[in-house]
Amino acid sequence: MDIGIFLALLVGLTAGVLVALLIDSYHLGQKVKQANTNRNLTQQELDRAKMDLASVEKELAVAQNELKNLSRETSRKEVEVAALQGKLDTAAARIEALNNNLDQVNEHLDELRRDNRALQGELQAAHNENSLLRDNLQRLETQLEEAREENRAICQQVSVTEVEMKHLRQNLEDARQQLADSQHLRQKLAQAEDNLQTTQSEIEQLHSRIKALQAQIALTGKNPLEVIKGIGPTYAKRLNEYGIYTLEDLAQADPAAIAGHIDLKPWQAVYPAAWITEARTLAAKINEGE
Fold it and tell me: How distant, in Å, are the alpha carbons of 149, 160, 215, 216, 288 from that of 202?
């Protein structure tokens, strides 16, 4: 009985041990699997670490090459910096020279400004003088017109005086013819001679006045044809283009030809025939005075 119990206990104990062993074996198998898995993972990580190490070594080699290149580049840059520093010093010297030149230019500019102000003053004075000359020119033109009017009046007076002189000469001739018959006629002849001398003196004075007027016209720079009434600068220029420059030329011209050349319109109050008549009178007086 004791042996059966003992055997039962032994069997139970053995079964418990076997169960425990089975359980431990199962857990151990699981741990082995886990350990294998961990070992595989560790091996993979080790392989990756080796790969990373190789990559790092390559990168280190590249970095070392880059460091060498940077060292060489740094040396080259230092040389360039030294060259640039030399250029900078040269540029600074040039800037200083340019500043000196700028000071000289500013001084010259100040001189030019002073000269400009002086020239402005001279220009204003010249402008004032020009205005004065214009006023004088207007006065001369006015005097010229007055001289023309006076010249026309003198020409008319000369014509009247010449007519009177012709009458006096005729009277003188008559008196000379009657001188043998009457002492009274001798006295009349003497009086006529005195009148003739007086008239000739007046004619000479009139001719002198005509020459003075011609000289005044010449000084003003006007065309000599403008002394004729009705001829202004425009008609004088057209007559010059036609070949008429003097009073003698105008005195010998044809009225119809002149009217055609100056493009005379029927409604214009311009009389070339009157021009020619006045030119003949003035030309004759001038020739007699000469």
Answer: 19, 12, 20, 21, 13
Residue 290 in domain: yes
With b for 16 or more beta-carbon neighbours within 10 A and e for fewer, the 181-217 pattern comes to eeeebeebbeebeebbeebeeebeebbebbeebbebb
CATH number of domain containing 290: 1.10.150
What secondary structure letter does DSSP report for 226? Answer: G
Query: Which residue spans within the chain are E strands per DSSP?
Result: none
pTM over 0.85: no
Supply angle C-alpha 170, 176, 182, rounded to 5: 125
Q: How does pLDDT run across 14-62, given as a tens digit for each residue?
A: 888 888 888 888 888 888 888 888 888 888 888 887 888 888 788 888 8
Provide the b/e sequence for 6-19 (b: ≥16 CB within 10 Å).
Answer: eeeeeeeeeeeeee
